[in-house]
Design a protein that fits this description.
By secondary structure, this protein is α/β, with parallel strands linked by helices. Helix content is 40%, strand content 18%. An eight-stranded mixed β-sheet has the order 1-2-4-3-5-6-7-8, with helices on both faces. The relative contact order is 0.14.
């Protein structure tokens, strides 16, 4: 159980209206977020040490609390930096298909929408942040961090992309495509009434993702009984998403591709790969990104399931050193 000191202060904010790239407008769009740390100001009253954290696929704003507990190093950084962690557009408890009530009528969103959702929130809630010190994106959040650096290249000093990619391909595309094929096989997700079969469908989709989400050394070092138990536990984690949230998220994952726009990046970039699963594979994701982004830095960690805490600490130390150097 998390110690209280590691928690971010949770808040909600409502954008009076948010317009998607396709023109669709949602009123009173909810933003779920957390903050921790100490703002520092320049002579004009602007916050100069803000770091935006973008969470992973199964996460939300509170994912940063997990990192805090795993590494005391990042918790200490609260005295040096002001962290903002936002639950992404499309993910509960922020504006998403299920919580908006739009369900199947929610608009398809693109990477630019995910970035603009965060950017509009920051400009409204923290107008004295004119430039972010850093954006840290983990897994799914790495897509958003990369998008920030492309669409608004002058609005951050650096980005750190951790265990992520620049486009959907291979297992990433296969997972999203198969998941939506499962959903489309049943017309029940089109009904207004929610039923038990939809929850079972979500569990099945999650179990497909299980194949790509654990280190190879772990899967080959435990018994089949232990695997069965961990599959069931893993599947339960996906139930925070509604079927509509999952479908639109998969739509996004199948279309995500920033490869042709990488030359727009101006800020410093640190790319960190975690050589552990089949979902993000360094030779197809992190290394090509490093080669295409001029001046970027690249580090690789060979992680094992048993040493996660130690490795998270080491990664945080690397990220701190990088941000401090900017």
């Amino acid at each position: 159980m998390f110690e209280e000191k590691y928690f971010l202060k949770n808040n909600q904010y409502f954008l009076e209206e948010f317009q998607f790239k396709n023109g669709f407008i949602i009123e009173n769009a909810k933003v779920d977020y957390g903050i921790v740390g100490t703002p520092k100001y320049d002579d004009e009253g602007n916050i100069i040490n803000a770091i935006l954290f973008c969470h992973n696929f199964n996460g939300n704003y509170s994912t940063l609390s997990s990192v805090n507990q795993a590494s005391e190093e990042i918790f200490v950084l609260k005295d040096e930096y002001f962290f903002i962690s936002i639950t992404s557009l499309g993910i509960p408890e922020s504006c998403c298909p299920s919580t908006s009530g739009l369900n199947n009528n929610f608009p398809d969103y693109e990477i630019e929408d995910l970035v603009n959702f965060q950017r509009q929130f920051i400009s409204e809630k923290f107008p004295n942040i004119k430039k972010l010190k850093a954006i840290i994106g983990y897994s799914f959040g790495g897509f958003i961090a990369l998008g920030w650096s492309i669409f608004y290249p002058d609005e951050m000093d650096c980005i750190i992309q951790l265990d992520s990619s620049f486009k959907s391909q291979g297992y990433k595309y296969i997972y999203a495509s198969l998941a939506n094929r499962i959903i489309d096989q049943s017309s029940e997700h089109l009904d207004d009434m929610y039923n038990e079969s939809i929850s079972k469908m979500l569990i099945l989709i999650s179990q497909i993702r299980y194949l790509m989400s654990f280190p190879r050394d772990y899967l080959n070092s435990v018994s089949n009984e232990e695997i069965d138990l961990s599959i069931d536990t893993f599947a339960e984690e996906i139930l925070f998403l509604d079927i509509y949230d999952m479908k639109f998220l998969n739509n996004f994952l199948m279309s995500f591709n920033l490869e042709s726009e990488l030359d727009r990046i101006k800020c410093k970039v640190l790319i960190i790969s975690l050589n552990r699963t089949n979902y993000y594979v360094p030779e197809f994701d992190a290394i090509p990104l490093h080669e295409m982004v001029e001046g970027s830095e690249y580090l690789s960690f060979d992680l094992s399931f048993a040493s996660d805490t130690e490795n998270i600490h080491n990664i945080v130390v690397v990220i701190k050193k990088f941000v401090d150097s900017v």
